[in-house]
Amino acid sequence: MDIFKNRRFVILGIFASFFIVYAFNLFYIQIMDESYTALANQNVIRNVTVYPNRGLIYDRNGTLIVENDATYEIFVIPKQLKTIDTALFCQLLDIEPQFFKDQLTKARGYSSYVPSSFLKNISVEQYATFQEHLYMFPGFYGDIRLVRKYPQSSAAHVLGYTGEIGQKQLELQPYYASGDYMGISGLESTYEPFLRGHKGSKLILVDKFNREQGSFKDGLYDTAAISGHNLTVTLDIELQAYAERLMQNKRGCVVAIEPSTGEILVMVSSPSYDPNLLTGRQRGNNYAKLQKDTLRPLFNRAISGGAYPPGSTFKSLMALMALQEGSLQPNDVYPCFGGYRLGSHTVGCHAHGPLKNLSSAIQHSCNAYFCYVFKNVIDQSKFETTDDALAKWDSYLYSFGLGNKLGVDIPGEHSGHVPTPEYYNKIYDKGRWKSSTIISLAIGQGELGLTPLQMANMTCAIANRGYYYTPHFLKRIEADTTNYLERYTQKHQTKVEQRYFDEVVEGLHQTVEQGTGRIAQLPGYEVCGKTGTVENPHGKDHSAFITFAPKVDPKIVVLVFVENSGFGSAFAAPIASLVMEKYLNDTIADKRLYLEKRMIETDLINPKVLSSNETP
After folding, report:
1. Which domain holds residue 537?
2. How far apart (Å, rounded) are the C-alpha atoms in residues 143 and 368?
3. pTM value surpassing 0.85
């Protein structure tokens, strides 16, 4: 009896233990284990990311230049899929059956339970039709997304574009999730942390017909999205669009800056493109076409890639360095008999009037004069070696912002190239080169390379008589408390004292009044400028012009660089003067409309071939 009694207790103990374990597991599954709860909820509750409104961008005059446009995105939850009419689905969304299969395979590879993006950038009108049939496609749902829209269709290189985040960026920035958009280039990229805002989330109840029934628990667990900050930028979008018209069908760039602040008014790189091409369903196709375009419309010539020789626009800086060094006096005169000759070295010069002083040498853009100026700087007895002399010369250029990145607030800036003693020692060996070897630097040629932005900034330093502010686009960030603008209010002093600028500025004024830049004259303004005909070993010379006005208390600096267009007075000077006139007067005088028409209509990329019966 004791044996059976003991067996009964053992059996009861086993059953009790089994029941306890079972009850505990059931409790854990239903109450404690959130993964099961979440798995069940995904059948009736949809967790939707709420994307914030991206910050808007305004120009300096309050004109809206970047806004948001509503589109829809289709998501899929593979576990909820059932047999559907694939042909109808593809017809409603205008996609190919193969695309449908590929996207579904990708979604299943990502997760069977978590929603993943199936199709982006669907118009409001198309989604409205699709939504009427949504109950026929269990496992699919749509959500509104905002994409960028550029109402002015200008300033593509400055504004930049947004795009889907890449895998490398995902690994570096935990804020983003796969399928999110971010700024890829231009101001969209630089000010991404301010523009993007903060995402929210909401839980949506969905019935068995895939229809939304409202918020889960009246939105108790929802979090609101926070809109991004709006930006006001320094661009004058009307002036920008005008400069783009003048530069159409030409290779080159325009940079206009307010010298008293460093605010960039205009930055044109031509050829350009409509920024709206890089939004919407066709963004990928359009980007591929732009990349393949041999005219390189995606390339920002104003700041990126290789630099240009500045040509004769550099002569004013050459004079300032020599004045500061004491190797040049304002009334010094050097001979010019068709150019500069020293042994086997010859630098040709064009025919011009007699030289009376430094100002007249700038006015007539005499190559020989500035070769003598350069030689006298480099060959000063106070320098033990030519290396020391060139290092000193370089230091002046660096103080004007040349040879280094200026720090403009869009990505892709190039540092340009200021040749150093080490550079020439590698070419000629140390001690085997001298001033005559590198004499072409005197007139802004040779190994000297500047970005157009650097040329414009150099001109700002001259217009300001010895200082500049870092060129920039940011004017104001809405609700910003980070003092982000402080970096752009710091004055950068050059190594040339203020007292040496008047003579050079007068030479620039005479260049426009009586010299090679006469076409840039504007009634009512004392305009200063310098033409440049930049030698190009690969074809026709480039046309360059730097200018500012008024002479006293200047309001605007303009740099124009037109590739393969000849003399500086041919295209660069007229375009620069028209941009300046538009900014200062808000209109173009009737007597100069012919010039505007000629600049707009001239096609230097696909020039017209004249027949034997036509005259230019």
Report:
1. 237-270+303-475+493-601
2. 69
3. yes
